[in-house]
Amino acid sequence: ASFNMRRLQETQHFQNAYAPFDGVITARNIDIGALIDAGANAPGKELFDIAATNKLRVYINVPQQYSRDVKPGGPAYLTQAEFPGRRFPGKIVRTSDSIDPVSRTLLTEVDVENPTGELLPGAFLSVHLELKSETASVVIPVNTLIFRSGGMQVAVVRNNKAELVPVTIGRDYGTEVEVLSGLTAQDAIVENPSDSLTSGTEVRPLASH
Fold first, then answer.
1. Which string of DSSP letters, residue by residue, matches 104-122?
2. I need a labelling partner for 66 at 20 to 30 A (CA). Which of 76, 124, 127, 160 fits?
3. Which of 105, 111, 106 is nearest to 92 (CA)?
């Protein structure tokens, strides 16, 4: 009788749902009076979504060229359009320690203290990292790029002759792209190069107006 009473008490405890952390219920997927089947053959059903908002985990994809500077414990800060001029301090907690072969990025987790709940889970934020090393780069218009079988190239004018230089592309800004290697800020490049352009072609530079 004692064990049967304990069984009934434990069954009655199913009237309450407990979470292993403090948080806020952001979604309820069950209504009062609905049948909850916990049998072995019943499909699993999520009752509630609970979010711990006092500390947010922010996941970002860091480009490969900056991955060596991303270390756990490093500083970071977040900005959001709804809070102009505000910076929310954060800290790099961990990385995946591997480069995604598709996007060539390093998955990184940044934790941000959010005691007042101003930052909402799922919101769009901008994450800023303080990198120690700087990658020298230049930004050029996309209409200067040449797509050939040998890879991405740019036509540079040297001694009044065109020279096709292979380049490594970084970030894409739409009408402009970042070049990580192959060019310097002093190089004169050809805009809208023709498909027949080859190295050694005579070029007559025109003065800009």
1. -EEEEEEEEE-TT--SPTT
2. 124
3. 111
Whole-number Å distance between alpha carbons of 173 and 138: 12
Question: Does an H or E element contain 69, and which?
Answer: none
Tokens representing 188 are: 């004169």
What are the backbone angles phi and psi of residue 68, rounded to the nearest 5°? Answer: -70, -20
Q: Give the integer Cα–Cα distance in Å for 142 and 32.
A: 58
SS3 60: strand
Summarize pLDDT for 9-57 with one digit per residue, the tens: 888 887 777 888 888 888 888 888 887 776 667 677 788 888 888 899 9
* Element of type H or E holding 131: none
Here the tokens at position 111 are: 């934790």
Residues 6 or more apart in contact with residue 156 via CB below 8 angstroms: 162, 163, 164, 165, 183, 187, 188, 189, 190
C-alpha 19/C-alpha 137 separation (Å) is 49
Angle, vertex CA 203, rays to CA 199 and CA 207, nearest 5: 140
Strand positions, DSSP E, the chain: 24-28, 48-51, 55-63, 75-79, 88-99, 105-113, 126-129, 138-141, 145-148, 151-158, 161-166, 168-172, 176-181, 188-189
Query: Tokens at residue 135, please?
Result: 């990658």
Q: What is the pLDDT of residues 57-108, one digit of tens each?
A: 999 998 887 888 899 999 999 999 999 999 999 999 999 999 998 888 999 9
